[in-house]
Design brief:
By secondary structure, this protein is α/β, with parallel strands linked by helices. The protein has a single domain, classed as NAD(P)-binding Rossmann-like Domain (Rossmann fold, 3-Layer(aba) Sandwich). About 40% of the residues lie in helices and about 15% in strands. It is built from 9 helices and 8 strands. Strands 3-2-1-4-5-6-7-8 form an 8-stranded mixed β-sheet, sandwiched between helices. Strand 2, helix 2 and strand 3 form a beta-alpha-beta unit. Helix 1 packs parallel to helix 2 and helix 4 packs parallel to helix 6. The longest helix is centred in the C-terminal third of the chain and has 17 residues. The radius of gyration is 16 Å and the shape is globular. About 45% of the residues are buried.
Length: about 210
């Protein structure tokens, strides 16, 4: 059993909290207002504990599930506390209309978060999974493809094993720069789900022959 701190109690953070608790982990959930009813309700629904940032950062590993800009700010502000921690970046650097990324080309959200907290062991994961997956038994059982990227091989394997234990087809995809390829992948899902009307009950599959 692992103690996992999740920064962000929106759809992704609360959803991950739910499946992680179901998987036997202790989950410490926080957001920008640790005393809010919203956080308390999300934690209660997930079976997690509503805590402040300091408590979440004391966990065995930490997941950034806040909006991208807030996640970078959090990483920079808490850089010292994140030193040596496995830090899972589940963010997507999306524009306000969800139609594009705010970073691309020669960098990625994951690399920017790593720059903000340079001693953290940053691993990109879970950003290609719609929040609705965590409440949909059929999607959870569909063995969705989850690419994992990071510069620390041990941290990558820790996160890959965690994702696999939740039922995902988790694949180590490369170093942290690989996030430059992983992050745009979510635009395909968003385009199909939101702009082509397929909804959010869909995910990725990696076919091997």
């Amino acid at each position: 059993m692992t103690t996992i701190g999740i920064i962000g109690a929106g759809g992704v953070g609360a959803g991950l909290a739910t499946v992680l608790v179901r998987g036997g982990h202790t989950v410490l959930l926080t957001n920008s207002d640790p005393s809010s009813d919203r956080l308390a309700q999300a934690a209660d629904a997930a079976g997690a504990s509503a805590v402040n940032a300091a408590a979440a950062l004391a966990a065995d590993l930490v997941i950034l599930a806040a909006p991208y800009a807030a996640a970078v700010e959090f990483a920079a502000t808490h850089s010292e506390q994140l030193a040596g921690k496995v830090l899972i970046d589940a963010t997507n650097p999306l524009t306000a209309d969800y139609a594009a990324l705010t970073v691309s080309g020669d960098t990625s959200a994951a690399e920017q978060i790593a720059a903000a907290a340079p001693q953290a062991r940053v691993v990109k994961a879970f950003n290609t999974v719609f929040a609705s997956t965590y409440a949909n038994a059929d999607l959870l059982e569909a063995n969705q493809f989850v690419p994992i990227a990071g510069d620390d091989a041990e941290a990558v394997e820790t996160v890959r094993s965690l994702a696999a234990s939740l039922g995902f087809d988790a694949v180590a995809a490369g170093n942290l720069q690989t996030a430059r390829f992983i992050e745009p992948t979510v635009l395909n899902l968003i385009h199909l789900g939101f702009f082509k009307g397929l909804g959010t009950n869909l995910g990725l599959s990696l076919v091997r022959v």
